[in-house]
Design goal:
Layout: E1 3-8, E2 11-16, E3 22-25, E4 36-39, H1 54-58, H2 70-80, H3 85-93, H4 99-113, E5 124-127, H5 131-143, E6 155-159, H6 185-192, E7 196-201, H7 205-208, E8 218-219, E9 223-224, H8 241-248, E10 254-259, H9 265-270, E11 274-277, E12 297-302, H10 305-315, H11 332-337, E13 348-352, H12 359-370, E14 374-378, H13 388-406, H14 417-426, H15 428-431, H16 437-444, H17 449-473, E15 478-482, H18 487-493, E16 497-504, E17 510-516, H19 522-536
Parallel strand pairs: 6-7, 6-10, 13-14, 13-15
Antiparallel strand pairs: 1-2, 2-3, 3-4, 5-7, 8-9, 10-12, 11-12, 11-16, 15-17, 16-17
Length: 546
């Protein structure tokens, strides 16, 4: 049986293709295959949040929504549901919509579907109390032709580990419920481009590097996120679970996630969305609660490729406070000017022989061939990713302390991960129902600088070898995978990866076709994904949320 190594933002997980179960690697073990044990992620200890409620979420917004009726909502569905951002902007410029109405529509859906009912998804942790007022201001600016960017006026949800001034940034943790901060770098960039921060999305707590025994999509603050394609049946993917769910359920125009290894690719593919994990450093990490300054990156999750490019462009910018920041090379106008369904012609793309048992993958390869791509079958390089978990442990110990010092609320008393662990122990019934074994691993780990540098160098070298050997020997433009199957290798190689819906299994589980290539190849990934998306038209909205 073949195991596929990946990390759902930070827990090392093995995915077995012959059944739908996930096989989890104990956080304190090595990557030895003998250490794994099976776990059914549908066995939830907790469903709804014990810390927030609909009443608390809607306290300041209900009055502002009083004029938005069920009749108005129904009349607008065909204009808004599953539409891309350019189409929404056209409806607004044509006078069929306004930014105020668009925000109210999404808020209406969130209230109707997200919490405390039979279809609850628990994908939203908090809402911006000023969102409707901000939308009204965008409508005034539209009259004065002050539109700055295609994302102007679009309601966006941020994963709740990304700082924003309007709402606390909790990482899903009880310990951070009062963590009110200034905006993260990418939050400022989105606002400067005109986006409306609609709210914060639920996530796997502490970006899935906290409780080794918890299911993906669980946080103490947000409760258990559910997948709209199979509520309580299909895994949401982690750790940007709420971002993926909210996008596919039409709770926002677009969302932002973050990834250390797999946490954008996993929930995007599990929820039939488009997710991009950019080259590390292309988007700033300043003001984002970290796991690993070596591997972390934010990235967009959207319903389609065009929106993904728009979001990526809106977040870009060189950040002098991020040591991995690079000068952005992307421009939305350039992307749109070069947009073509023929962008796959003549491209040599490597396809793994080990994945050929997947019928959806084989069908996707046929689509790529018909669009002019040359598919080259390749075999996975036999490489290891030694001390992957230790890299995360050692980084988080330092990086979280740095976040507390530079980017967290100054009234918080935490300075180290041990401070948070002590808080959790004192509030264990609410803070850690699944324990905090991964935090314990961080606390217990240590190394010399020389040892840590060696770990990072070996991982990066091995990750790049995994892709570069076939790419160089076969003159490939890129490599094609499934979901987040090769997220671990892409993470340590620091290579970008983009997943796009490629269909549904016989059990109705969404799958994504994932394009991977060398650093700063985002333009190519977006172009290839767009050509595939337009030719295949595989995404179908979840039927219970129309």
């Amino acid at each position: 049986m073949r195991y596929l190594l990946f990390l759902c933002l930070a827990i090392v997980v093995f995915s077995c293709k012959k059944d739908d179960k996930k096989i989890e690697l104990d956080a304190e073990s090595s990557t030895d295959i003998s250490a794994i044990s099976t776990k059914d992620f549908r066995d939830f200890k907790i469903s709804d949040s014990k810390l927030i409620s609909n009443e608390a979420i809607w306290k300041t917004l209900d009055e502002q929504l009083a004029d938005f009726s069920e009749e108005k909502y129904s009349a607008l569905k065909s204009l808004i549901l599953d539409q891309d951002i350019p189409t929404l902007q056209k409806h607004i410029s044509d006078g069929k919509l306004s930014y105020e109405v668009l925000v109210k529509f999404y808020l209406f859906r969130i209230k109707a579907f997200d919490r405390e009912n039979d279809l609850s998804l628990n994908s939203v942790i908090s809402l911006n109390p000023k969102a409707i007022e901000e939308a009204k201001q965008k409508d005034r600016e539209l009259l004065n032709k002050k539109i700055k960017h295609p994302v102007f006026g679009m309601p966006v949800l941020l994963k709740d580990n990304i700082n924003t001034a309007e709402m606390p940034t909790t990482a899903g943790s009880l310990a951070l419920q009062k963590n009110r901060t200034s905006d993260a770098f990418i939050t400022k960039s989105l606002k400067e481009s005109g986006a409306i921060i609609l709210g914060k999305a639920n996530l796997s707590e502490w970006a899935y590097f906290f409780c080794g025994e918890c299911p993906s999509g669980y946080s103490a603050v947000g409760g258990q996120t559910f997948n709209p394609y199979g509520r309580r049946i299909i895994d949401t993917g982690g750790s940007s679970s709420g971002s993926g769910v909210a996008v596919t359920a039409n709770f926002c125009a677009a969302a932002v996630g973050s990834e250390t290894s797999g946490s954008i690719l996993s929930p995007a593919s599990q929820n039939s969305a488009v997710g991009l994990k950019p080259t590390i450093g292309l988007l700033s990490r300043t003001g984002i609660i970290p796991i690993s300054s070596t591997l972390d990156t934010p990235g967009p999750i959207t319903k389609n490729v065009i929106d993904n490019a728009i979001m990526l462009d809106a977040m870009k910018g060189f950040d002098k406070n991020d040591f991995k920041s690079v000068e952005p090379i992307l421009d939305a106008k350039q992307f749109f000017n070069n947009l073509s369904t023929e962008s796959l012609k003549g491209k040599r793309l490597g396809a793994f022989k080990e994945l050929m048992e997947d019928k959806l993958y084989v069908q996707a390869l046929d689509v790529l061939k018909k669009q002019g791509a040359e598919i080259v079958e390749i075999t996975e390089e036999k490489i290891e990713l030694p001390d992957f978990l230790r890299l995360l442990n050692l980084d988080m110990k330092v990086d979280l302390a740095t976040y507390f010092k530079t980017s967290a609320n100054k009234n918080l008393t935490y300075t180290t991960i041990e401070d948070v662990m002590e808080f959790n122990k004192n509030n264990s019934d609410k803070a850690m129902p699944y324990g905090q074994s991964l935090f314990e691993g961080v606390s217990n780990d240590s190394s010399t600088k020389e040892e840590f540098d060696a770990i990072k160098n070996i991982l990066k070298t091995n990750g790049r070898q995994f892709f570069d050997v076939p790419m160089d020997s076969q003159s490939l433009d890129g490599i094609i995978s499934i979901n987040n199957y090769h997220a671990g290798e892409a993470a340590v190689a620091e290579y970008p990866a983009l997943t796009v819906p490629m269909g549904y299994t016989e059990k109705g589980v969404p799958e994504g076709l994932t394009f991977i290539s060398k650093p700063l190849s985002e333009y190519s990934l977006l172009q290839w994904a767009y050509a595939y998306e337009q030719a295949s038209k595989m995404r179908v909205a979840p039927k219970n949320y129309n």
